[in-house]
Amino acid sequence: MGIADRIDLREVSVARPDGSGGPDPRNPHPEGKVPYLTDGADHVHERGAIITYLTDRFPETGLGRPVGHPQRGAFLSWLFYYQGVMEPVLVLDWAKIEHPVLQATFRDLDAVFARLSEALDGLPYLLGEDYSAVDLLLSSPFQWLPEAMPKQSALRAWIARCADRPALKAVMARERTGVPV
Question: Is the pLDDT score of 10 beyond 90?
């Protein structure tokens, strides 16, 4: 977003699926998770809420769709789709958990990929010609879970376009080396 000079990034430890990490007394998240944002006395957690908060707070970045924008509804819908459908489906698929109720409620990975493919049909990004925070959020799992990478060439091309962003490259480099950006 180009706001690094206006934020104070604090890394904390969290419990990881492989058993590493653990509770960190410096972590203000009520469940000991990440991400978590503080802005003065205001506190925000959950990815979609943080993205909405930051893109509303810094509209000049162009990564959000402000109130009144014709794509505001689509922007919010994709953020909530990520947390309400896509992330649960990815976790259930990764954990190899299947049940008809889960599939009826959250869909399955093929349905998620079909929805993304439909939205991207003929477009470079989910909201059209311009990259936005929804592209960042919805493409990001495939940076961390390459085994979940879709087979569809259009989705792979979109993920590659999103991964080619300088800010994402910097974060990925930081994650690989453990050196703050």
Answer: no
